[in-house]
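Re: the 140-residue chain
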Amino acid sequence: MEYAGTHSSAPAVDKLFITGLTFDHHRTTKTGALVLSFCWQSDEVVAFFNCDIRRQRGPLKGQSYKIGIGGQFLPPERGKFRAFWQESVGAPPRRWAAVHKEIKSRLKGLAFQGEMYTAEKKNGEAYKKVINLHLWDPGY
């Protein structure tokens, strides 16, 4: 084998399929990410989605909305958040730019499932991240 003696410097990632995630809150980041926070066995588990945090119209067009908990955002047209929303809620919001107002009320009574693993922040702090997030089907 050509690569027999090499070792990967990337840590091994053990993914765990989990069910029963309940929505807690959302927040936005200055890098243009939407973070959905879920509760699972008294731990916080987060999911990341791409989003646009810049204003689309008006005199402040191009400037960023305030970031943090409850922040406003616009998901991309063919982005994963819109697909996640359609699967979870079943109908699009009245306006995608105002979806941040509906998140808590629409997702609070639902349970989700996905693949969880432990990731690291830039400062080395560990957190739990979920990918392949879907509405929980108890018959699955």
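The CA atoms of residues 36 and 66 lie 17 Å apart.
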